[in-house]
Amino acid sequence: MALLRSFSTFTLLLLLLLSTTVISQPQPLLSPAEQDSVYRVLDSVNPHIPWRTLFPDDLCSYGPHGVVCDYFLQDGTDSSSAAQTVHVSELSFGYVSDFNPNPTCSPNATIIPLLFTAFPYLRKLFFYQCFNQATTVVSVPQIPASFGSGLEELVFIDNPSLVGPLSGILRYFTNLRRAVLTGNGVYGNIPDSVAELVNLEELTLSRNQLAGEIPISFAKLKKLKVLDLGGNSFAGKVPESVGSLSQLLKLDLSSNGFYGQIPESFKKLQRLELLDLSYNRFNNSGVPLFLSEMTQLRTVSLSGNMLGGQIPEIWNNLGGILGIGLSEMGLVGKIPASMGVYLRNVRYLGLDNNKLEGTVPQELGLLESVSEINLENNSLSGRVPFKIGHKMKLNGNPQLCVDLGSSFASGGFDKLKECNKQQKPNPAHLTVDSSSSSSSSVQVVVPSMLMATGFLSMIMLMLN
C-alpha cells in the first residue's frame, strides 16, 4: 500500500512537472515588423474589417484563417525545432467555404507592393475572387528579384480585374511547384523563362487573355503533371516537345486557335488521364489512331475540330474511359458497334453534329453506365433498336424511328417518327357510269348496300 501511494505521488509530481513545462513553453512570436506587414496586407484586401482589434495578439498563434506561420532556420530551411524563428509561410485571401474561411475581400480590394517585399519565407500565395469589379483594374505590382525564391504555390482564381503581363508575374520563382492563374486578366505570351521552373508540377493558365505559341522549351518541365492553357487565344502548331512531358496527367488546350495536325508524340503520354483539344483548328488528320495506345485515358475531347474521316476501331484498349467528345468534327460513315462492346464504363458519348449515317448499333444499348449519348443532327436512319429514354439524344435525324410506346414517346423525342405506327390504307373509289343502262357500258355494277358491306368486310379482314 505504501509503495502504491509512493508511486501515485511520483506520477502526480511528474504530471505537474510536464504541465508546467508545456504551459511555460513560449508560443510562436512573429516579429513586430512582419506582424505589422500582415495587418497592412489585410487592410489592403478588406479595409472595412478592424483586423488589429479583432486579432491584437501574435498572428501566428491567434491570427485569422489564411495566415499560416512556420518555423525556419536562419537560411530559410524548414525545421520542426521550436527554437527556430517564426515567419509567415502562407497567405490566402477570398472566402472559399466554411471549411476554408479565408479573409473575405472587399469590392475595393487591391494588392500592395509590400506583399512582395515583407515576406521572404512565403511558400503559398492565394487569391480567390478578390478582384472582380468591372469598374476597377488592379495591377500586379512589380515583383523584385529578392522575392519568390522560396515560393512554391502561386494561385489566383477568378479575379477578372487583376491585370498584368504573365512575364511580370512568373518571375524569380525558381522553386515554384504550382502556378494556377485561371479566370484573370493576365495577358501576353508565355515567356521562355517559364521553362526554367524545373520544379513545376502544375501550370494552369486557363481563361485569361494570353496569346502566342507554346514554347518548344517546355520540354524542360520534366516534372509537369498538369498543363492547362484552355480558354485563351493561343495559336500555331503544338510542338512535338509536349509529348516528352511523360509525367502529364492532364493536358487541356481547349478553346484556342491551335491548328495543323495533332502531334503524333502525344502517344508517349502514357500516364495521361485527361486530353482536351476541343474547339481549336486541328484538321484533316482524322481521329488519332494512337489514342488506342493511351490506356490510362479517362476523358478525351476532340470536339469542334474539323478532323473529318470515319470513327476508327480503336476502343478495345480504352475500357476505362469515362467521357468521349467527338462532336462537330465532320465525321462520316457509320458508328462502330465496338464502341458499345468495349466502352462499358463510359458516362458520356458525344457524336452529335457530324455527318454520320447508317443505323444506330444495337450494341450501344449495352452501355449501362452511360448518362448521355448524343447523336443529334446526323444522317442516321432506321429503327432505334433499344430503349434508353432520356439518356439518348436523337433529334435532327429525320430518317430515324422509335417504337410506339417506348420510353422515347415521353422523353422529348416528338420529332422522331414511330416505327410501328399503323398505316391506314387509302381505299379505291368505286364508280358507276350512269350515262348508260346497258350492261356492256357498266364499269362496276354493285348494289350500294352490297358495296358497303363488302368494303367493311375487307377492312375487318385486314385488321384481323
UniProtKB/TrEMBL annotation:
Signal peptide positions (record): 1-24
Gene3D superfamilies the record matches: Ribonuclease Inhibitor
Any coiled-coil regions, as ranges: none
Cellular component aspect of the GO annotation: membrane
Lineage top rank: taxon: Eukaryota
Glycoprotein as UniProt keyword: yes
Membrane-spanning ranges: none
Annotated InterPro entries: Leu-rich_rpt, Leu-rich_rpt_typical-subtyp, LRR_dom_sf, StomDev_PlantInt_Reg
Pfam families, alphabetized: LRR_1, LRR_8
Subcellular localization(s) per the UniProt record: Membrane
Record key words, sorted: Glycoprotein, Leucine-rich repeat, Membrane, Repeat, Signal
Name of the molecule in the record: Piriformospora indica-insensitive protein 2
